Amino acid sequence: MSTDSIQPCERQVLIDEIPLMLVEGGRGAPLLVLHDELGYPGWLAWNASLAEHRRLIIPMAPGFGRSPGLDWLSSLRDLACLYGRFLRDNGFDRVDVLGFSLGGWLAAEMAVNWPGQFARMMLVAPMGIKPSEGEILDLFMRSAPEYLRAGICQPASCAEYLKLYGRQPTQPQLEQWEEARAQVARLAWSPYMHNPSLPSLLRGVRSMPTLLVWGERDAVVPAATARRYQESIPDAQIALLRECGHRPEIERTQEFVNIIRQFIGS
């Protein structure tokens, strides 16, 4: 496959009259990718690797990036319903889903609403369930750059982290992060970053092949949360990456890609 064939492009789709921006790139069966609480960071090395065999579909959630906010959107469950409509309207049937942090929680809510829309579910350090040990890091008690640094186990030695965030953020980037944080406050402020009903509701998707990927030194969502997810989805597999924080796709890119490829068979 040529490099040009997997380059991402951005386009807008409409759900009724609701505009939603998408980033799309790669070839093969579609893979729905749900970004984290600070929005889509750009096309990274892990995206390019997975795009060699899969077509990545990455929506920018309303209020994040170039997708305009929606006044009526007030919970992750609302967003899950909207994304479910997007999948149905665009003919995505039993798609694989890969969700990161807040996006992992969103994928879990979508699965609860309609398990049949997914073939396989991969959740990378998902929020959504209250940790049994420790607590989810407070996004609003620190600046966005500080929050990003906390998510990486060893920032000084992580080349892709330094490429993305090691420079002084531009004013547009800071504004985009602040808009994302405002939207997260609308969706997940109280209770903070979890849904008390989710563990019980997830029992309805126990037959879905599910992979939980976590860094063992995650300072944002404690790795012990993986066990709480597995209590609700007993057949879920857990991949725990050593000496890794909240963003294994950045800190352990090749290991992360290998784990995902093995699980989805490509």
- The H-level CATH homologous superfamily, spelled out, is Alpha/Beta hydrolase fold, catalytic domain
Q: Which blocks of ≥5 consecutive residues have pLDDT under 50?
A: none
Mean pLDDT: 94
Strand count, sense and barrel status of the largest sheet are: 8 strands, mixed
Please give the number of β-strands: 8
Helices and strands, in N-to-C order?
EEEHEHEHEHHHHEHEHH
Q: What share of the residues lie within helices?
A: 25-40%
Radius of gyration from CA coordinates:
17 Å
CATH architecture type: 3-Layer(aba) Sandwich
By CATH reckoning, the class would read: Alpha Beta
Explain the layout of strands and helices.
Elements: E1 9-15, E2 18-26, E3 29-34, H1 45-50, E4 54-60, H2 76-89, E5 95-100, H3 102-113, E6 118-124, H4 144-150, H5 159-165, H6 171-188, H7 198-201, E7 210-215, H8 225-232, E8 237-241, H9 248-251, H10 253-264
Parallel strand pairs: 3-4, 3-5, 5-6, 6-7, 7-8
Antiparallel strand pairs: 1-2, 2-4
Helix pairs in contact: 2-3
Can you offer a commentary on this structure?
The chain is an alpha/beta fold and about 270 residues long. The chain has one domain (about 5-265): Rossmann fold. It contains ten helices and eight strands. It has helices spanning about 45-50, 75-90, 100-115, 145-150, 160-165, 170-190, 200, 225-230, 250, 255-265, and strands spanning about 10-15, 20-25, 30-35, 55-60, 95-100, 120-125, 210-215, 235-240. Strands 1-2-4-3-5-6-7-8 form an eight-stranded mixed β-sheet, sandwiched between helices. Strand 3, helix 1 (about 45-50) and strand 4 (about 55-60) form a beta-alpha-beta unit. Helix 2 crosses helix 3.
